[in-house]
Write a structure and sequence with these properties.
Recoverin, domain 1; globular; transition metal ion binding
Length: 108
């Protein structure tokens, strides 16, 4: 049986995390620099569209996710970051739908 698109996406997220975590230091955690590289390399349009490319955004995201304050992001903490990204993507999706609807119905 082949993987579903969602299963493949989940596998890709796990693979991406480990690929970037292995770049320096502990191969099971992300440093701030590894997180910055992961986000800017893998979600560039999202980061640009929402103004998230600013260094302070990634630093704040890192600090909020680093629950044990060890200056590293373990996979569990990375899931918090993914949750925030998915939430932002979802909001962006609704804004686009609303804009499309409003344009079609001359509401602007």
């Amino acid at each position: 049986m082949t993987d579903t698109p969602v299963e493949e996406s989940l596998f890709q997220i796990i693979h991406c995390y480990h690929e970037y975590a292995a770049r320096e230091g502990d191969v099971e955690t992300l440093s701030l620099e590894e997180l910055k590289a992961l986000l800017t390399d893998n979600v560039p349009r999202f980061m640009e569209t929402l103004g998230r490319k600013e260094p302070y955004y990634i630093t704040q995201l890192f600090q909020a996710a680093d629950k044990n304050q060890d200056n590293q992001i373990c996979f569990e903490e990375f899931l918090y970051i993914l949750g925030k990204l998915v939430k932002d993507y979802h909001l962006q999706y609704h804004q686009q739908l609303c804009a499309h609807y409003c344009t079609q119905h001359s509401l602007y």
